[in-house]
Every structure is written in C-alpha cells, then in structure tokens.
Amino acid sequence: MARTASALHILVKQKELAEDIIIKLKKGAAFDVLAKRHSTCPSGKKGGHLGEFEKGQMVGPFDRICFNGELFTPHLVKTKFGWHVVKVLYRT
C-alpha cells in the first residue's frame, strides 16, 4: 500500500467552476495554466503542484482520492476548504 503521493490541485469555491475546469482539462487545457488562473490555494502560483506528501497528511476526502483514485485523471473533491480538482501524479 502506498505511503506517499504527489498531486496537482486547483481549489475553487464554486462546484460549477470546478466542473468547468475538469471539462477544459479533458479537452486538453494545461493544468498549470488553469491553476494559476483559478486556484485560491497558494499552490496555484506553482501550477497547482503540491509536491510529495504522506498518507493522512491531507484532509480526508482529498487524501482518499490521492491514495485510491485513478492516476492522471482529474477528480472533483469537496472538502471544508471548497471544491478541488485533483490530478494524482504518482504513489510510492
């Protein structure tokens, strides 16, 4: 079972915006460009890169996607911070 993961994410307040971002990603938009434009998280300035983190380090729903969701696929996740578009890059 993986102990660490690396992911990109875009944090927004509205579900509709998050869904629109996923549609744009599926049509080929660059994740980093959308993160810099839309994300309210400080990681947005780095293209949404969160780096590598350990299991249990992130809030529950986010953590579950990062350690169980399909790699390289944009996922929609709701947490207490808002709506996240998450793309898991790898697990170790």
Write up what this structure looks like:
By secondary structure, the protein is α+β, with helices and mostly antiparallel strands. The chain contains three helices and four strands. The protein has a four-stranded antiparallel beta sheet with strand order 2-1-4-3, with helices on both faces. The model has no long low-confidence stretch (mean pLDDT 97).
Pick out its properties:
single chain, 92 residues, alpha+beta, 4-stranded antiparallel sheet, globular
Question: What does this entry show, briefly?
Answer:
The chain is an alpha+beta fold.
Unreliable stretches (pLDDT < 50, length at least 5) are none
> How would you state the average pLDDT, rounded?
97
For the biggest β-sheet, the strand order reads 2-1-4-3
- The radius of gyration computed from the alpha-carbon positions, rounded to a whole number of angstroms, is 12 Å
Which H/E pattern describes the elements?
EHHEHEE
> What does the largest sheet look like?
4 strands, antiparallel
Helix segment count? 3
Query: Based on the structure, what is the oligomeric state of the protein chains?
Result: single chain
How widely separated are the two ends?
8 Å
Share of β-strand residues = 25-35%
Fold topology:
Layout: E1 4-12, H1 15-26, H2 31-38, E2 49-54, H3 60-68, E3 75-79, E4 82-91
Antiparallel strand pairs: 1-2, 1-4, 3-4
